[in-house]
Design brief:
CATH topology of the largest domain: Rossmann fold
CATH architecture of the largest domain: 3-Layer(aba) Sandwich
Order of helices and strands: HEHEHEEEEHEEHEEHEEEE
Mean pLDDT: 96
Number of strands: 14
Bound molecules: ribose-5-phosphate
Number of domains: 2
Low-confidence stretches: none
Helix content: 25-40%
Largest sheet: 7 strands, mixed
Shape: globular
Oligomer: single chain
Distance between the termini: 32 Å
Length: 234
């Protein structure tokens, strides 16, 4: 697992995050992702709520995005109250040319996947450094603590090298918002993300993994403030 860069002062991330906020209009129920890029979207939506009367409901994907949304003044709802969302916006750790993404650098990918699949449209915001022709970053796999050894064995059988993610400023493993462990699995270049996604999902005790095959659009921010939009070919 490479070190997480959550710098909050990035012109590229800001450009992408703010551009995606323009997709949101009054009356929408919006999935709010987790991480430093979508944080710009959440703050911008908060500004539009306060200054322009934007009337939306948000569904958060983590404790972090919940706190940010509350601070921004965005009204929140739940998937129980609003099971179908108009739009979900989130960041990614890596995204390939066919818009397969790896997420979960912040261990939020389980709720992020549930929220993104609940949305009619899923938009990823990122800077250029996240783009790649093929996926080759470690894949975060959230597992029930009870199932850790089985998951390690099964991931090895799939050709992966799993490592239990360790906490920072706490001894022992990272515990997700759902009370589980995260295995970061190295697979080298992932030639067929959709097949690997299905294989990981089939392991008993795997709660969710970080391969996302449901991205509709990618907003790539540049230093000069411009944004390139890539749409998935269906
Ligand atoms: O678990 C975390 C999420 O999947 C994030 O959306 C992802 O790690 C990207 O975060 P950032 O925008 O901070 O690079």
């Amino acid at each position: 697992m490479t070190e997480r860069n959550t710098s909050t002062d990035s012109p590229e991330k800001r450009a992408a995050g703010i551009a995606a906020a323009r997709l949101v209009s009054s009356g929408m129920v919006v999935g709010l992702g987790t991480g430093s890029t979508v944080a710009y979207t959440i703050k911008e939506l908060g500004r539009l709520v306060r200054e322009k009367g934007l009337d939306i409901l948000g569904v958060v994907t983590s404790y972090q995005s919940e706190m940010l949304a509350i601070e921004a003044g965005i009204k929140l709802t739940t998937l129980s109250q609003h099971p179908e969302l108009d739009l979900a916006i989130d960041g990614a750790d890596q995204i390939d040319s066919e818009l397969h993404a790896i997420k979960g650098g912040g261990a939020a990918h389980t709720r992020e996947k549930i929220v993104s699949v609940s949305a009619k449209r899923f938009v990823v915001v990122a800077d250029e450094s996240k783009t790649s022709t093929q996926l080759d970053k470690t894949v975060p796999v959230e597992v029930l603590p009870f199932a850790k050894e089985l998951a390690v064995k099964k991931i090895r059988e799939l050709g992966g090298k799993p490592h239990l993610r360790s906490a920072v400023k706490k001894d022992g493993p990272v515990i997700t918002d759902n009370g589980n462990f995260v295995l970061d699995a190295e697979f080298g270049v992932i030639k067929d993300p959709e097949t690997l996604a299905l294989q990981l999902s089939a392991i008993p005790g795997v709660v969710e993994h970080g391969i996302f095959c449901n991205v509709d659009e990618l907003y790539i921010g540049n230093k000069d403030g411009s944004v390139k939009i890539v749409t998935r070919q269906k």
